[in-house]
Amino acid sequence: MKQFDSSQLGQFTGTSKYYKISRRHLLTDGTRYLAEQAACFWLMDAIASHLSEIDTAEWFVVIKTTVKRTSAVMVYEDGNGGELARQAIPYTDLPLHHIDLYACWDSEHWVIMLPSEY
Fold first, then answer.
1. Are 17 and 33 in contact (CB under 8 A)?
2. According to CATH, what is the number of the domain 23-117?
């Protein structure tokens, strides 16, 4: 696997295009770049699966992923520290120790984005 440079994520502000990963889930330029460069489309799939179970009244969700050695925990919050869901990932080679992503419901899709794209 090639080396992932997380400092490149800061270049993404807004998005010029959306990328459909399922019928109701979209990635932005930044999250697509992250998925491709860090080889973590599995992360986007995991997020999409949990978002499908979260009531869309929670139109904004923060996904906090923390990696410890070769495992991870993903916590889905309401933006005010309230936990909506949690998932343990028994094995990962995600090249980041921690990453926060946002998801917003646009009345038709969940849009998964980097915080700098919000």
1. no
2. 3.10.450.150
